[in-house]
Amino acid sequence: MFGWEFPPHNSGGLGMACYGLTKSLSRSEVSVTFVLPKKLGGLEHDFMKIVFANIRNIKFRSVTSLIHPYITSELYDEYLLKTPENEIYGLNLFDEVRRYGLQARVIAAEEEHDVIHAHDWLSFRAGMEAKRISGKPLIVHVHATEFDRTAGHPNQYIYEEERRGLHAADCIIAVSQHTKNVIVEHYGIAPEAIMVVHNGIDHKDYRHELPAALSNIRAQGKKIVLFVGRITIQKGPDYFIKVAKRVLEYDPNVLFIISGSGDMEHQIIRLASDMGLGDKIVFAGFVRGDELLKLYRAADLYVMPSISEPFGLTALEALANGTPILVSKQSGVSEVLTHALKSDFWDVDDMADKIINVVGSNALRDTLGELGAKDVEHVTWESAAGKCTQIYEDIINRAD
Amino acid sequence: MASICFYFQVHQPYRIKKYRIFDVGHDHEYFNDRSDRDINNEKILHKVAGKCYLPTNKLMLELLEKHPEFKIAYSFSGVFLDQLEEFSPETLISFQKLVKTGRVEILDETYYHSLSFLYSKDEFVRQVELHRAKVKKLFGVTPKVFRNTELIYNNELAKYVEEMGYKAILAEGADHLLGWRSPNFVYKSPGTTSIKTLLKNYKLSDDIAFRFSSKSWEEWPLTSEKFTQWVNNVNGNGNVVNLFMDYETFGEHQWEDTGIFDFMRALPGEILKHPDNEFLTPSEVADKYEAVGEFDAHNYVSWADVERDLSAWLSNTMQHEAINNIYALEADVFATGDVKIIEDWRKLQTSDHFYYMCTKWFSDGDVHKYFNPYDTPYEAFIAYNNVIHDLRLRIEEKKNKRVESKKLSVAKKKTTPAKKAVVKVAKTVSAPKKKVAVKKHSVTKK
Question: Which residues contact A237 (CB under 8 A, 6 or more apart)?
């Protein structure tokens, strides 16, 4: 499996997904050799050894590389400048992806395996190179496409990489019907070649008691509406600001919190202050672990106004903490949940209407929170791993 | 002797349009959706009239003409009759024709198909009165038998309705209350003297209403011969078979291609082949048979869902909050004396609004989803909640105006003796309380 960094070193959902899926797979009859790029220092590798210390059927191989999910060409150049002279990396991001792929050949020759499973475009090339060596079937797992990340303005090189990987694959796994549709529409793949495996959540991680956060704000009778995610065009933070403005016209007693970081951060902070919402919108930065859990629990409503969201794990996290959610209809998570509010991301009035009603009615908030938490109980990594195992078996049998 | 008693419920609510918080204060038309969605009341009424009301009325008239022994009964909600007058007068005429045969009985219910008995006895009485007046006006008859919204029933209601002068009341023949006893007899409620309780034979009723087209049902396909056989089996161990169902069973819930019309067309003739069978209307059943025992409903029963309780309308906190909000406005609504405000308030009491907010079976996507014109129970609640905000504003506005005009009239005390028009409106709206002699009981509310 060509995967990515695990929490706590992740910067988004892809790391969470690789972690959750691998953990559940390793508990079943599947042996996993997990290949991941090792950034400077190799902290991640040690962490995983600890996490998986008692599990025998998982093995880690790392490849020294500077790539990580959500990387951009500019970011790569920045990294490259900071690396020691004696280490060898690609001239630019794309060269590095190619270099990473070539190293996969060595691993494919050394490690025994029946299927190759590669997560998202940065590892597609590695998967293809591995397949070239071992001749084993290649499964590519799409957690996001370039169309989602750029809200419809793809980088041509990345698009080509994705397209090549998708066409080389023996089977494609999409994290939602939404993503499947994008792949069919934009990458020329037949719908029959794509299996949908929805992401899940590990409920144990969200059940422990924690001291309440933001209790002073709540004590003032203020209601809290929360955004969690990378502050990038894909996640619709600008819509969140517009909706906040609309809500506050009707109910000034609401505090909006944005947790996350990203390339639009400064732009969004400016937008908020330009709209005169400086003291009504709080930027909490990138928050993880128990701090994030406390934030979810303190909120009256979690809002995910993504323009195109392949899945949206944070929505599951909010529900697992008993917080009701409002998600865009353009999201994968909306396919697996019924007890959730759903709006089109561009329909600012509709979102504002729903938010005003949730913060204004305990009955609505409690019913959504309670039934939503029950609803999310069946959305687990065990179930996702089970579907993946089935796909492995089918593809191995097919190859025989 | 088996007496077959057909009773059909005919109702359509005024569904609330997609009403956003931003409409509050500007838009007071809550029920005028004109979209293609299933919240467009006119569209729905035309659709159901075409598929069910008109063809089924035609069939019923044909059967009444063919079989002089055939009889049926209807209960129309007042809001349904209003919509017929507004959107489909021809459907109203076809119902009037049926009633003119003299073998079609009409029952009373609350005008607004409401749960008012549970929340305001005064309002309950007013709505029943309005209904009675409407039936008299449109059909020229005065009902003698009562059925409450969705067959919601308990002992208290039976006693209350008895004192309003009805001779019979309908209820669900719920197993948990009947025990080993059969619904095929007439019962009475404890504490009543003369009113009869007629119980729905839910098995035979639901064979037609729910299971008729179900191919996984072992008795499918249901023929009129087979059904008559089951009815005949009652001979000797029962007096009456009460077949109570939604009228929309014919053509709307069971589509024409299921054969439901052919089944019904053949049924009366088939039933009448047996010399001991006859058709009776609910009041005839009450006249003919004595109560054989007590039907003791301490708690409410209804004909909804497998639970046969109130949970379809009142199980989650949204439903409770919404209905408490609407009834909390009662005194303020009447104080406005504004006919339109009162009517909107009443239309918001229709049980369907709360049914749409039900989350009980939402995930499983069953019958509740089928009957829900909103995407989710939450959307239904939000639209309703926003409308209540607007209604409150309208009430507040009226109140302020009244206070102002009062100040004005106090200031000009000597010029004019008062505002007659306002006083008059208030009277006509809030008066009916005393028309029906209702004794106050010490029956405690559940």
Answer: A227, A229, A231, A258, A262, A264, A268, A305
Angle between helices A362-375 and A348-360 (to 10 degrees): 100
Contacts of A366 in chain B (CB under 8 A): 317
Closest CA to A319 of A226, A235, A187: A226
Nearest chain B residue to A325 by CA distance is B378
pLDDT of residue A45: 54
Specify whether the backbone of A41 is left (phi greater than 0), alpha (psi in -120 to 50) or beta.
left
Q: Would the pLDDT of A23 be above 50?
A: yes
From the list B21, B316, B321, the residue facing A353 with the nearest CB is B21
Residue A273 CB neighbour total at 10 angstroms: 12
Question: Whole-number mean pLDDT of chain B?
Answer: 91
My answer on whether B206 and B287 are in the same domain is yes
Q: Touching check for B403 and chain A: CB below 8 Å?
A: no
Model confidence over A235-274: pLDDT tens digits?
999 999 999 999 999 999 999 999 999 999 999 999 999 9
CATH number at residue A281: 3.40.50.2000
What is the ipTM metric for this complex?
0.86
Q: What's the CA gap between A291 and B296, in Å, rounded?
A: 57
**B371: confidence class by pLDDT, cuts 50, 70, 90:** confident
Q: Which domain holds residue A316?
A: 204-378
Map chain A to HEC letters: CECCCCCCCCCCHHHHHHHHHHHHHHCCCCCEEEEEEECCCCHHHHHHHHHCCCCCCEEEEEEECCCCCCCCHHHHHHHHHHCCCCCCCCCCHHHHHHHHHHHHHHHHHHCCCCCEEEECHHHHHHHHHHHHHHCCCEEEEECCCHHHHCCCCCCHHHHHHHHHHHHHCCEEEECCHHHHHHHHHHHCCCHHHEEECCCCECHHHHCCCCCCCCHHHHHCCCEEEEEECCCCHHHCHHHHHHHHHHHHHHCCCEEEEEECCCCCHHHHHHHHHHCCCCCCEEEEECCCHHHHHHHHHHCCEEEECCCCECCCHHHHHHHHCCCCEEEECCECHHHHCCCCEEECCCCHHHHHHHHHHHHHCHHHHHHHHHHHHHHHHHCEHHHHHHHHHHHHHHHHHHHC
Report whether B303 contacts B244 (CB < 8 A). yes
- A163 Cα to chain B: minimum distance (Å): 36
Q: Do B362 and A339 touch (CB under 8 A)?
A: yes
Is pTM beyond 0.90? Reply is no
Cα A135 from Cα A118, distance rounded (Å): 15
Residue B28 in any domain: the answer is: yes
Q: Do A364 and B381 touch (CB under 8 A)?
A: yes
Which of chain A's residues have a Cβ under 8 Å away from the Cβ of B22? 250, 349, 352-353
Same domain, B337 and B222: no
Whether residue A4 lies inside any domain: the answer is: no
| Alpha-carbon distance values, B332 to B21, B335, B341 (Å) | 22, 5, 10
Predicted local confidence at residue B442, as pLDDT:
42
Domain that holds residue B422: 317-434
With 0-12 / 13-18 / 19 or more C-beta atoms within 10 angstroms meaning exposed / middle / buried, residue B397 is middle
On whether residue A97 sits in a domain, the answer given is yes
> Which token pair is A104?
């996969």
